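Recall that a protein's primary structure is simply its ordered list of amino acids. Everything else, from secondary elements to tertiary packing, is in principle encoded there. The following example makes that idea concrete.
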Amino acid sequence: MPLFLALLTALLTIRPAPPPDHTGLWVVRAYYNDEQMVREIASWIEPWEVHADQGYIVVGVDEAQYARLEALGFRLEIDKELTDKVNHPVQFSPLQTDGIPGYSCYRTVEETYAAANSLADAYPNLATWNDIGDSWEKAALGSGHDLYVLRLTNSAIATEKPKLFAMSAVHGREYATAELLTRFAESLLWGYGSDPDTTWLLDYHEIHLLLIANPDGRKKAEAGRLWRKNTNQNYCSAYPSERGADLNRNYPFAWGCCGGSSGYSCDYNYRGPSPASEPEVQAIQAYLRANFPDRRGTDLNDAAPIDTSGVFVDVHSYGELVLWPWGFTASPAPNQRPMQTLGRKYAYFTGYTAQQSYLMYPTEGDSDGFAYGELGISGYTIELGDWFFQDCATFEQSILPGNLPALKYMAKAASAPYLLPAGPEALSLISMPVSGESGAPVRLRAVINDRRFPAGSGEPMQEIAAAEYTIDAPPWIDGTSRVAMQPVDGIFDQRVETVQAFIDITGLSPGRHTVFVRGQDVRGNWGVISAQFIYTQPPIVLPVVFR
């Protein structure tokens, strides 16, 4: 009898479940025999999850797509929990006064725009809110929305500055993405002047945030619909709920080349009728071209120069992934090695899986492929969390704490993203006067750490060889004096070293000064900078009493 029950259980487990009796979307686990099966369906459907170790993908399908997958040899099982989640969205509470219905932690398009505009008003020397183009509905119908970039930098410091460009809400249904970048902007502006790292980032970098890249599609998704594309009414007119183009398949680089997008207008990953046919993509690519010089040749194997500056990040959900080009071929990109290093660094903060995009499934005409392929920028796609409509508890307790410092690291690395991530980080900066006497030296301590990569990633870690500091300007500014720091234990021979220096402040003007610290490993790799404030006081002059 136990043997019979075991066999019966096994048969029930592997038997393809029939579609449930409803007219909504079915979420299925589609089991495959080899990875080529997944690559071949990427031309008409995008997997939501890929579990290569267990041989299945998770994807939402209608009746025709269900039958098509079965005909292609996939063994299908209904994921009842996700199917219920898709077809029974969270209900709006009458007590909720703002935010996306059922998700009070996520601001609507209008609330996001209002928050960004308020930041620009409150911090006029640090933030500008710039119109860069139109959504399809704005361009074609006169309704819709503008696309805005929130640009953050200290405008009082006029020097060439490295740039981080990050965008979110390319696919309307990905709730957590826009809120993450909005919170990132708020954390930087609110921390300016009190947090040394935040202050120096805005003093010597430009951070460009396109908070909502697809506002028309976002408005559809705010009603609880799994809307992915823009809302272009010229496509899929027979099925209005499926209209639009996938903006992340519409970029001109590798557009429609290799089976990573669809030419059928009703598919979720429809690439559009021509490269950059959509006004949203036209606005984004024009903005990138205006802000980043082209540092890569036209041949597919041309590498960007190792000193290229600038980082591009496209934030999506879901999957807990850090992805980099190429997406249209298994061949590594010419700058694969340093892009992998920076991707793994992001994964250190978040616990995400870091890999080349193609290893999931083929994509083409995508944003990071354009940023890197055309301009040579170190480009990434980040997939947040474990659902499109991510619950607020997970967003607040998991996504924010990991991704905010990861984005901050991306900004730090923007001056040389193909070099700096290979070097150690400078952490735990502390400064204090040696004594209470006026003009006494300041003791500066820091931890130089070359081990901050995910366990088992294979990323090389080296012993520390040097550390140095500069005062009131980062070391790349001409004329800045660089001063060596020494290991506290007397010798550089570990992958993590505590270093110190004694700063003579007698030549510094009274008030606050910024100290910039960085470390170097034995292979000569300098890492990103961290900053600390030190304070000097004017000398105390005792009154002279004449008798």
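The radius of gyration is 26 Å. The chain has three domains: 2-87, 109-420, 423-536.
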